[in-house]
Design goal:
This protein is α+β, with helices and mostly antiparallel strands and 141 residues long. It contains three helices and six strands, in the order βααβββββα. The protein has one domain: Alpha-D-Glucose-1,6-Bisphosphate, Chain A, domain 4, CATH 3.30.530.20. 28% of the residues lie in helices and 40% in strands. A hairpin with an 8-residue loop joins strand 4 and strand 5. Helix 1 crosses helix 2. The longest helix has 23 residues. The chain starts with a strand and ends with a helix.
């Protein structure tokens, strides 16, 4: 198995506003999970979620920023596993922001899922949709 998650979301807000929800730790924590993200290439950060042991995920997500084009593109690695030091998920997350009308199209590509990651793939595929919907709620409040 090798797979990629692809989704496109639309927000009726400028790319600069949507960008903040991807790159500011206090905003990221409101819709995804806590983490010390910074839009700086080579910045390593960790995001922590509730463990999902049935998916071989201990809740720790190890990331490194690989590419930054402010307000347009953010790329980071996303690694995880069943316990510290045992990485079984080694993926890449790419966010691309495109101005569209008076708002922003936000494209997500989460790639690199391999055999053994099927449950995480399914969970994350649905999870990204649910989490992205939270951005819309936060933007409209």
């Amino acid at each position: 198995m090798s797979g990629s998650i692809k989704h496109t979301f639309y927000y009726n807000h400028k790319p600069e506003v949507v960008w903040d929800y991807l790159t500011k730790p206090e905003l990221l924590a409101q819709w995804l999970m806590p983490g010390d993200i910074k839009p700086v290439v080579e910045h390593k950060f960790e995001m922590v979620s509730k463990p999902k042991l049935e998916m071989n995920h201990d809740g720790h997500n190890y990331c490194e920023v690989l590419e930054v084009i402010p307000y347009k593109k953010l790329v980071y690695s996303w690694k995880a596993g069943p316990e510290p030091g045992n990485i079984t998920l080694n993926t890449l997350v790419t966010w691309t922001l495109t101005p569209k009308g008076s708002g922003t199209e936000l494209h997500l590509l989460h790639e690199g899922f391999t055999a053994g990651n099927e449950l995480l793939f399914e969970g994350m595929n649905a999870g990204w949709v649910n989490h992205a919907a939270k951005i819309e709620k936060l933007l409209t409040n």
